[in-house]
Amino acid sequence: MNQILSQNEVDALLAAVSDGAIDDEPETPAASSTARRRDGRVADVRPYDLTSQERILRGNMPMLDVIHEKFCRDFSGTLSLEVGHLSELVAEKIRLMKYQEFINSLPVPSCLSLFKIEPLPGNGVVVVDSQFVFTLVDIFCGGSGSSRFRVEGRDFSSIELGILRRIVRKALADLEKAWAPVFPTQIDFLRTEINPQFVSIAHPTEAVISLESKVDVEGAFGRFQTVLPYATIEPIKDLLTKNYVGEKSDLDKLWKNEVRGHIMESSVELRAIMGSAELSIERILDLKEGEILSLDQFADEPIDLMVEGVNKFKVESGLFRGYKALQVVGKTD
């Protein structure tokens, strides 16, 4: 406010406050967030924007932690082999934020590598700390990695981007292996962008999940971040809310019914054992056409029915419409 009050206006304002015509305490959000019901009682009111598309992550997803930690363990070894120095990737927090908040937190230039995670919808992005990119290139080319580089106002060269893409592809391969025990996927590298404004994996108001980790290459520290839209993991949210790998879910029941259907349509061999007899080789050689052999089973006793070599039923033999047939009379104990 550019206008300055005169002395008379100040006196009038103070007099109005003293008389109670003007409330000297500012209205608090709690006071303004009230409404009177029809019965006269006052109820708290919380403002809600119906146009907002922000999603709420309900409950924890323990399997995301498992995937994140396995990825960090595997990529630590992969990165050590790539740069020739002992490297360690430490899993840190998993955050839920708006996509616009994530984009605003990134400097220019930034190293953002987009990837597709089949068969889930949408794309993800891997973010490598810009300063750490120069450190990796320095180490990769034989340096110590202790030098500091100026990031602001400078683009990455084709050599630097080439080395970065090689590292990111290795990281995505380890990420695919980390997802395999929970939900098998195929992760494909798409492209690398420097300007965050050219990367659009979600609506600005939609939620994304950021899996953050800290990289240590013999004292050279950096940040490694994997970001996925919440809409990407929503189809498999039930799998991610399990407490351990292999926990049963509705998807397991579907697979069980599918396997059961195929098993029920399988063909098996049935063989009825009429009986047996022991004969010497000499007796067998003397057998002639028309001879009768006595078996170890009476004619009126049920005979065994073998299913794939396993004795399962007791049956009786006979004729049915001119064909030899078996009638099941019970199960084998």
Descriptors:
alpha+beta, six-stranded antiparallel beta sheet, four-stranded antiparallel beta sheet, 12 strands
Please explain how this structure is put together.
Helix content is 32%, strand content 27%. Strands 3-7-8-5-4-6 form a six-stranded antiparallel β-sheet. 20% of the residues are buried. About 4% of the residues have low confidence.
Shape: elongated
Question: Main β-sheet: number of strands, strand sense, barrel status?
Answer: 6 strands, antiparallel
Q: In what order do the strands lie side by side in the largest sheet?
A: 3-7-8-5-4-6
- Uncertain runs with pLDDT below 50, 5 residues or more? 26-32, 50-56
| Strand residue content | 25-35%
Number of strands: 12
Helix fraction by DSSP (H/I, runs of at least 4):
25-40%
Based on CA atoms alone, the radius of gyration comes out at 38 Å
Rounded mean pLDDT is 79
Q: Would you tell me the structural class of the helices and strands?
A: alpha+beta
Individual helix count = 10
- State the distance separating the first and last CA atoms: 98 Å
Order of helices and strands: HHEEHEHEEHHEEEHHHEHEEE
